[in-house]
Amino acid sequence: MPSDSQDIRPKVHHPLRIQPLGPTYAAYGAVLQLLAAYAPFAGFRLDQASAIVRAQLKSGNHIAVFAADDQLVGYLGWIHTSPAAAERWVKDLGELETVPNGEALAITVVVSTTPAATEMMTRRCRELHRGYRGYFIRTYGDGRESTKRSVLSR
Predict the structure, then answer these.
(1) Is residue 8 part of a domain?
(2) Domain for residue 11, yes or no?
(3) Quick one: which of 26, 47, 67, 84 is 20 to 30 A from 93 by CA?
(4) How would you classify the pairing of strands 62-66 and 147-152?
(5) What are the distances in angstroms from CA 5 to CA 10, 36, 148, 149?
(6) Residue 134 pairs with which residues in a beta bridge?
(7) Are 109 and 56 in contact (CB under 8 A)?
(8) What is d(CA 130, CA 154) in angstroms, rounded to the nearest whole number?
(9) Contact between residue 136 and residue 149 where contact means Cβ atoms under 8 Å apart
(10) Which of 53, 66, 67 is nearest to 24 (CA)?
């Protein structure tokens, strides 16, 4: 019989995996379907969300998380920009502008069906962009005021 200090719980294999998406119609449709199911994206006009997603799929500036049954359960997308442009964006002082090889990231899309997928995506994004400052605006679907932040990946 095991002692009280031994952990006899079975080890559980993590059912989620990160997998890149290609610039395909199937990937595009899967991301838009996921976005359409969650606020605030569910309230966006299709042209707003679709242009952003299309550009992120073409550039590879995204992270996707899939469940064991191959369902897309998380998507995080970004653009490269300058710190000055990102600061203006989070302060509502200007449109977000893409700056190829910019020294900052604007994380423009994050949607997930589970906190575990969100954690996986944010951790992977930080690993990919060490030394970059990431900017994001978090919008809630329940009427709470948006929060604006920047974080430095170390």
Answers:
(1) no
(2) no
(3) 47
(4) unpaired
(5) 15, 47, 44, 42
(6) 105, 151
(7) yes
(8) 5
(9) yes
(10) 53
CATH number, domain with residue 127: 3.40.630.30
Confidence of residue 145 (pLDDT cuts 50, 70, 90): low
**Strand pairing report for 133-138 and 147-152:** antiparallel
- Please count the structural domains in the chain: 1
Q: Convert 78-103 to b/e letters by CB count within 10 Å (16 or more is b).
A: bbbbbeebbbbbbeeeeebeebeebe
147 pairs with which residues across the strands? 138
Q: Is the pTM of this model over 0.70?
A: yes
Can you give the residue range of the structural domain that contains 42? 17-152
CB atoms within 10 A of CB 107: 23
Read off the tokens for 9: 């719980």
In which residue are the tokens 């200007």 written? 94
Q: Is residue 108 part of a domain?
A: yes
Q: Could you tell me if residue 31 is inside a domain?
A: yes
- The dihedrals phi and psi of 55, each to the nearest 5 degrees, come to -65, -40
**pLDDT digits 0-9 by tens, 84-128:** 999 998 888 988 899 988 999 999 999 999 999 999 999 999 999
What single letter denotes the amino acid at residue 69? D
Task: Mention every residue, 6+ apart, whose C-beta is less than 8 A from residue 78.
Answer: 56, 61, 62, 105, 106, 107, 108, 125, 134
